[in-house]
Amino acid sequence: MDNNENKAFNYTYSAKEQEEVKNIRKKYLPREEDKMLLLRRLDESVYQKASAIALIVGIIGALVMGVGMSCCMVWAGVWFIPGIIVGIAGIALVCLAYPVYNKTLKKERERIAPEIIRLTDELMK
Asked: pTM for the complete prediction?
């Protein structure tokens, strides 16, 4: 046998390079969803949706109330009475924001409940 045929080049990665290789590989592997993370995300989505809807209602109410105040204070003459009516409508919308939040929260909890119960059952085993 020839000595040149048996010679091969071998190189092993250092620990730092191995970690980098693992991190790069991890990016391209299909990700397994952590059940606790999924449970937290589902629970948080209920509150986020309710808060977003309540904020929209409250902001629209505040803007409508502002239009009513402007009618009363800036264009006083003919627009005074309609301004009061528009302002009261805005106040009513602002007051509805909290009940809308509670109703949306209840509705979303009912919608998400089966999935939450299933995940909690799996986690408690």
From this structure: 0.68
Residue 77 lies in a domain: yes
Residue 96, number of CB atoms within 10 A of its CB? 16
- Domain of 116 in residue numbering reads as 33-124
Query: Comparing C-alpha atoms, which of 94, 109, 92 is closest to residue 54?
Result: 94
CA–CA gap between residue 74 and residue 25 (Å, rounded): 65
CB 104 within 8 A of CB 50: yes
Q: For residue 42, is it left (φ>0), alpha (ψ between -120 and 50) or beta?
A: alpha
How do residues 34-83 score in pLDDT, each as one tens digit?
788 888 899 999 999 999 999 999 999 999 999 999 999 988 788 899 99
- The total number of structural domains that make up the chain: 1
